[in-house]
User: Fold these one by one.
Assistant:
Number 1:
Amino acid sequence: MAHYSLRDNPFTADPADRVAKVEDVRSYSTADIIQMVIDEGSTLNRADIEGAVKSFFEKCAKVVSEGGNLNTELVSTSLSISGVFENADDSFDPKRHTLKINATAGSALKDALKKVKLTKVAAASTDPNIVSVADKVTGAVDGDIKAGSVIKLSGNRLKFDASDNEQGVFIIGKDGEKRHLAVIENIPSSVVVLLPADLAAGEVSLELRTKMTASQDKGKKLKCARYGKSLSIIA
């Protein structure tokens, strides 16, 4: 069973269309596959299977290293060269050309693909999420914040581009909103910033805004995470 979700399509201008993303995929190592063979009651012991698999991999690698192509039930390969050759007398230069290996599914994997059952699931969130806010000066967590203090936000996907004034940590109160002054730590799971000293006392909201994507690339869409618990600025 394979799970997939639908997400915004970044490659078109149509706001309605979506692209699919396969979710919750487990990866299986060679050791995992060997264990599956053993669990099914193989007459071979682990050492025998590991030796046979290792020998198979080594021979496949030898074929490719000698310029050959693989054509197995699992995978088929071919070699190609990218880059421009200046004329008919030019030769391969690793500084200008790249030797590549191309791989396609073999007959066994193609047959397996036909048997995959797909189930649509809700897309996992890519938005930032604040789990807790701590005042590093007073030690308070999820409560009062001292104006001009250093605060730590913990959560998920919190990293932002500090050079972009649209991104960062914002305190929103009765006197409007103010952005952090300096960044001390800025990673996906934790952000530590210095707050302005002139924040007005009283109840406030805290927002983290970022354009970073799940792969930590700089995107174009601004995403906001407003902290769900009540916070107050104290003098």
Note: The first strand starts at residue 2 and ends at 8.
Number 2:
Amino acid sequence: MPKQAIDPKILILSAPSGGGKTSLALALVKGRSDAEIAISHTTRGARPGEIDGVHYQFVDSDTFRKLIDEDAFIEYASVYGNLYGTSRVAVNDLLESGKHAILDIDWQGARAVRECHPEAISVFILPPSIHELEQRLRERNQDSELVIRQRMDKAREELSHQAEFQTVLVNENFDDSVACLNQILDAPDHE
């Protein structure tokens, strides 16, 4: 039987594209039976290796807009021309099952989640440097030069929102960053 969290929490992870939030979220839940990532909906196409219902709920724009009209999301935003949103039902189901809900979202989404869930814990993940961030984006081999430049410009703007988060974590050593996130979830109360 999976371990249940004593006090299930919402843990928001935000970072500029390439900052490592998705990799950290995956590593965090892999090592815990009491936490799961709330799978986001998106209108963007699947990248190589991504599976519908595992990495994202891939939907078309009309379906996404219908879900907005139904107030199905606790947060949603347009990012790089695609829509992303976190399902209310997905988060509530995780919490009600005794599991921590891990949200892999941007700063705008984090702001919206904190409005309806002020108890949520928010962590902004920083790369060790802007140079390292650019290197990570290039090593992913997923984007054109133009898209990388756009992501870097957006990253500089996103970094200005780190003060809105309870914790800022520099993702220099991956294992240390995962350990830090585990400590945050295991803390009895997070102020």
Note: Strands lie at 10-14, 35-37, 41-42, 57-58, 73-79, 82-87, 100-104, 121-126, 167-170.
Number 3:
Amino acid sequence: MQKINVKPGAKLVDYKAYGSLYSSVLDFLEQAKEPIESLKGRTIWMINSTAIGGGVAEMLPSQMRILRELGVSIEWLVIEAKKDAFFDLTKRIHNAIHGSGTGIFTEEDRKIYKEINQNNLPKALEFINDGDIVVVHDPQPMPLAAMIKNEKEVSIIWRCHIGLEEDTAVTDAVWKFLEPYTKDYDHFVFSLPSYVPKPLKNRTSIIPPAIDPLSHKNRELQLHKCIGILYQSGILDDHKAILYDRYEHLVRKVMPDGSFGVLDADNNLDLIYRPIVTEISRWDRLKGFKELMEAFIKMKLDNRKHGDPKSLDYKRIEMTLLVLGGPDPAFVSDDPEGKEVLKELTAIYKDVDPSLQNDIAILLLPLDNPKENALIVNALQRTSTIIVQNSIQEGFGLTATEAMWKRKPVLVSNAAGLKYQVIHNKTGQINPDPTDIASLSKTLAYMLNHPKERDKWGFNGQLRVIQNFTLFSQLISWLEVLSKNKI
């Protein structure tokens, strides 16, 4: 168990300086007074499984900084595990909650689950005191509740960031496996009402995830800064560094022969000179990367077959680049499935006609420096024409939230968290079936060839995020939950 140090960052005065956020900050400060007063004298402990990568690790630092500025005592613990069997189990649990996989869990699984959390317990008990409030995030540390309560008088909340709208045999199986651990929690928090298992409905609050508008991933990037980051990271090579040197670890690209290599002047993507369709996520079959690549290829081939080479529409689609971005496996040791998915995408890419390979870039983003990684994602998103989240299943989909905040038009699937955010034809486009290649292809072409519509969707998308999905609306909901669930 590690205690994570949260570095200094944006303060309330920084958010208030933005006209678009000013009212949100004032409303938050007014509503926060009473619950914050009720939390004095106790510490809130956030516990999850990683301090780098993923929505939880991204959201917590900003939330903690703001609460600390208001006088709340809040800390962050991360469980430690070295057994591959544990990572395999928690990945299967994650997939099963999304309705994917076999749903088969054994007593050996339960033994590993308990063992890893038991190993983390002594350190947790060194930190947590009677009267504190503990928030456990997602399945990995879920067994800790009973263990901690055996030693301390605390209130414990479980925060689940994933789910599936309907019950299936697989989801029934995984919730049955997790049921013994739910009994020791005082309250539950889910992202959407449809994700809540029936037995937990009476003890659950709904808090949608949210973004920090001033984080490195979301802060404004002027044009020269955006291009500079693309150069520093190795994505561009036709630009000279003016203020900063290149990053220690550069973005790598899947090459036509399937190898991973860095880009150079002879292998340039011309990224800032052409329309770009982008999806950035972890390498996961549920993210719909393969289907998006197939739809992109179909769009290109259909354009060449049926389009008018003299028309602007034809030229625009012919020029478009597809960027699929995800973590460089060199920096990820605990995601064997991610490596398999990347291997599958690489195999498909190797078989793509050479005339199309230069229009597809599978980029591997280094994770050694969280700030640099966030800036790379930010720069890629801001350079993009359309940002896609083609998830077959999705816990919520903050990548869409990030894109809308940046006034980028989004194309998303009908996955619950995505359709909760995106209003079809107003803040973006929803393609109901992420595996319907023909429909996805047509929607891509339509969005590319309707620039005025894209501008409208981007503008409306940013307004929707400001009103519903910034950290201030999320923090108010959290303060209400925490103040009501203290001992």
Note: The two ends are 24 Å apart (CA to CA).
